[in-house]
């Protein structure tokens, strides 16, 4: 067997395993959506106004969000008008196609890899999000993925307001086998970020991931703190941070929208990670948040294992929900 054929087979197995994990992680959402869809079309042979009204209710109750739901319904209405007759047996396919089309506008890429641009200097990710959404866990899993792909990673424990946050990041760093820069409880977060970037730059690291405090009680203070961290990092690397990654808990449904709103007002978020999708029937939140905030969903968390963070692939995600 040639190495090329062997590698194709190997990557095919990895791809299949990844898809199976995604299918399993979205089971609760899929089951909920399909039950609701079945009720929406019962006794109907074609998509009419009543079916569309029922479909609108299905999407809203699946945490897709009102505005995004309206956009999806309008797209399907146009299909109905164009095709003259659209059977309810075709609704599933049409719904998939329109949601994929909608997500296409706000997707980083459809690759399965954790590749990053080769800049010659460390790629800096500043991670933001409220406490309890899985922020530190996401950082640990990201570090693992980057390290597995051959990257040299440095973590920065800039959430200095909670001793538990620093301790948790240290545990993840040890588990993954990457260094972490930390200071004492109550230290200046910007100072930690500065030290982290200096270490990464001097040691030729590929990726820096900075954890930040998960407070949201005062938007002005949050904005000032995140701005200060960014300004201090620019003294070491003028382009830093390359990515401001907002972590949201998918299981909180509409509350995740509010968190996204507050953090996008507080800082320039340019990527999203949505976690805990395996434990909820609210997976539709991925579609709505991507559409409403015009910020690409880059990663999704679909399990507790260290491998259960995936690069978001819109085609595979929608296929797992509606296939």
Please characterize this protein's 3D structure.
With 323 residues, the protein is an alpha/beta fold. The chain contains twelve helices and eight strands. The protein has an eight-stranded mixed beta sheet with strand order 3-2-4-1-5-6-7-8, with helices on both faces. β5, α10 and β6 form a beta-alpha-beta unit. α8 packs parallel to α9 and α9 crosses α10. It starts with a helix and ends with a helix. The N terminus is likely disordered.
Short description:
The chain is an alpha/beta fold. Helix content is 53%, strand content 12%. Helix 2 (27-41) packs antiparallel against helix 3, helix 6 (135-148) packs parallel to helix 7 (163-176) and helix 9 crosses helix 10 (254-266).
Strand content: 5-15%
Rg, rounded, reads 21 Å
Identify low-pLDDT runs.
1-14
Q: Give the overall form.
A: elongated
Strand order of the largest sheet: 3-2-4-1-5-6-7-8
Measured as a percent range, the helix fraction is 40-55%
Which structural class should the secondary elements be placed in? alpha/beta
Q: Give the helices and strands as they follow along the chain.
A: HHHHHEHEHEHEHEHEHEEH
Task: Please give the largest β-sheet.
Answer: 8 strands, mixed
Compute the number of helices.
12
> First CA to last CA: what distance?
34 Å
Number of strands: 8
Mean pLDDT: 87
């Amino acid at each position: 067997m040639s190495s090329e054929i062997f590698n194709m087979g190997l990557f095919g197995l990895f791809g299949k395993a990844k898809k199976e994990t995604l299918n399993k992680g979205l089971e609760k959402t899929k089951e909920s959506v399909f039950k609701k869809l079945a009720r929406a079309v019962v006794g109907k042979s074609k998509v009419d106004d009543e079916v569309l009204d029922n479909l609108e209710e299905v999407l809203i109750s699946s945490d897709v969000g009102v505005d995004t739901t309206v956009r999806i319904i309008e797209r399907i209405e146009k299909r109905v008008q164009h095709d003259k007759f659209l059977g309810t047996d075709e609704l599933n396919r049409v719904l998939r196609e329109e949601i994929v089309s909608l997500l296409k506008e706000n997707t980083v890429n459809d690759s399965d890899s954790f590749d990053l641009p080769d800049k010659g200097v460390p790629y800096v990710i500043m991670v933001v999000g409220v406490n309890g959404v899985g922020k530190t866990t996401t950082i640990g899993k990201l570090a693992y993925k980057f390290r597995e792909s051959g990257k040299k990673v440095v973590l920065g424990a800039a959430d200095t307001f909670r001793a538990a946050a620093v301790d948790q990041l240290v545990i993840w760093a040890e588990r993954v086998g990457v260094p972490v820069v930390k200071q004492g409880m109550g230290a200046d977060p910007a100072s930690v970020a500065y030290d982290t970037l200096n270490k990464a730059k001097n040691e030729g690291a590929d990726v820096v991931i900075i954890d930040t405090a998960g407070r949201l009680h005062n938007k002005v203070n949050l904005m000032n703190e995140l701005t200060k961290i960014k300004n201090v990092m620019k003294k070491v690397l003028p382009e830093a941070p390359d990515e401001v990654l907002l972590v949201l808990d998918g299981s909180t449904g509409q509350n995740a929208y509010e968190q996204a709103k507050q953090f996008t007002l507080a800082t320039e978020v340019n990527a999203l990670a949505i976690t805990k999708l395996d434990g909820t029937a609210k997976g539709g939140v991925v579609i709505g948040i991507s559409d409403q905030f015009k910020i690409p969903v880059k990663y999704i968390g679909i399990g507790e294992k260290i491998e259960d963070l995936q690069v978001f692939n819109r085609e595979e995600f929608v296929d797992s929900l509606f296939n």
